[in-house]
From TrEMBL:
This is MHS family MFS transporter. It is found in: Cell membrane. It is a multi-pass membrane protein. The keyword Transport applies. GO terms for molecular function: transmembrane transporter activity.
């Protein structure tokens, strides 16, 4: 693989706004669908798809289907990363959005266990796997379309719009599910939960309309137009594994803590708060309040990383997560709605956002243009799988280990992962002033630790 030394000129303002809006809206649609599933797994699926099981076992099984979507995310990153690095970012983003919208709409139409027996959870898992493949390919393209259109001094902010789609989609998903959770329990479980999934079809049409109106990444176009790039370089995945294995490892470990908190606060925390005595609808509303603030703090921390660097911002967040994990989960398990709100406010808009805001640029800047979609997607999605994919399932098991009420072991898990992420981020090279066209490297200190 070769690289080009050109640095992208900033797109004209109107087109740049369209690019950013496309990346943001596309991520909103993708994460609305993906995270809506998490809320439904917390509140609904154990009752209708695993109705033949003990309630505790049913909850664990429900979170297991949630994890399946995370395990398929790296596969989506590899598949769409390959074609995104070969054919372009834009076309892959249209496909991933269509896959996600279609799978989510079908989930809303699925018959229950009482209607078709064991085929119900099997079909649910299949559709969840398709969701995972779709969102696995979405993030890399959305982040790179913004990053590679942006000027050097605003890359962190531009790339963060893809991550802003996460809490925005979560907020939309939470509000839509909250509206129907006010129904009588029987109506909610029979049909109310389905409406937010069926709404995915409407979001898909809007997202595709916007996404089809943006141009291809200028850095990708320049890479493919250069004479040197026409040489046979092989698969982007092979290039990533040969040239950037340490970067992938550091991206995976460095991003794990942010995803662990994201996964726990979007799913397990809701279950914990409700089981501890807090009202279900009230918990969803306070979660929505924190998520709304989260949308604002993600770009704020990204802007800070454009000024002082990615590493200090993300390491600060990881250290804060390690220190505050215990009080956060004690508040979530208190049954007191004010303490639950405080836990969500500290956990998402402050700690998680400080790691998540700079993450798109942090990971993307680790790879050269010709393999950036594949490399960044692989690192990001492995971090998501390792962090968020196993989080609710692991937390449910650790909560049971603590007697079913005390989340102390969950807190210890969060603290340990935050420390691991802080160390991995420290081992990377600061990249906020780097030139995207130049070959990225890993510091000698990291090479010594990853052998």
């Amino acid at each position: 693989m070769t690289t080009t030394s050109m640095q992208p000129a900033a797109a004209d303002k109107s087109h740049m706004r369209r690019v950013l809006f496309s990346s943001y809206l596309g991520s909103v649609v993708e994460f609305y669908d993906f995270l809506l599933y998490g809320i439904a797994a917390s509140l609904v699926f154990a009752h209708i798809f695993f109705a033949n099981m003990d309630p505790v076992v049913g909850t664990i099984a429900s979170f297991g289907t949630l994890a399946a979507g995370y395990f398929s995310r790296p596969l989506g990153g590899i598949i769409f990363g390959h074609f995104g690095d070969k054919l372009g970012r834009k076309s892959m983003l249209v496909i991933t959005m269509t896959l996600m919208g279609g799978a989510s709409t079908l989930i809303g139409l699925l018959p229950t266990y009482d209607q078709i027996g064991s085929m119900a959870p099997i079909l649910l898992v299949v559709l969840r796997l398709i969701q995972g493949v779709a969102v696995g390919g979405e993030w890399g393209g959305a982040a790179l379309m913004s990053l590679e259109h942006a000027s050097a001094k605003n890359r962190g902010l531009a790339a963060s719009v893809a991550n802003m789609g996460g809490p925005s989609g979560a907020l939309l998903a939470t509000l839509s599910m909250t509206a129907f959770s006010t129904l009588p329990k029987e109506d909610f479980l029979n049909w109310g939960w389905r409406v937010p999934f069926l709404f995915s079809a409407v979001l898909l049409l809007v997202g595709l309309f916007v996404r089809l109106r943006v141009s291809e990444s200028p850095l990708f176009a320049a890479e493919k137009a250069s004479a040197a790039s026409k040489e046979k370089t092989g698969s982007p995945l092979v290039v990533v594994l040969r040239r950037y294995p340490k970067n992938v490892a550091l991206a995976t470990l460095g991003g794990s803590a942010a995803f662990l908190l994201q996964g726990l606060l979007a799913t397990f925390a809701i279950t914990l708060a409700v089981q501890s005595g807090a009202d279900r609808t009230a918990v969803l509303l306070v979660h929505a309040c924190a998520t709304g603030l989260h949308i604002v703090t993600i770009p704020a921390f990204a802007i800070l990383s454009d000024r002082i660097g990615r590493r200090p911002v993300m390491i600060g967040g990881a250290i804060a997560g390690a220190l505050l994990a215990y009080p956060i989960f004690q508040m979530l398990g208190s049954g007191n709605l004010i303490l639950v709100l405080l836990a969500f406010l500290i956990g998402n808009p402050l700690i998680q956002a400080s790691m998540y805001g700079p993450m798109s640029a942090f990971i993307s800047e680790m790879f050269g243009t010709g393999a950036r979609y594949t490399g960044a997607s692989l690192g990001y999605q492995l971090a998501a799988t390792l962090g968020a994919g196993l989080a609710p399932l692991s937390a449910a098991g650790l909560l049971a280990l603590g007697g079913g009420k005390d989340p102390v072991f969950v807190s210890l898990m969060v603290s340990a992962v935050c420390v691991i992420s802080a160390v991995a981020i420290y081992l990377t090279r600061e990249s906020f002033r780097s030139e995207l066209g130049k070959e990225p490297t890993v510091p000698a200190r990291a090479a010594a630790h990853i052998q």
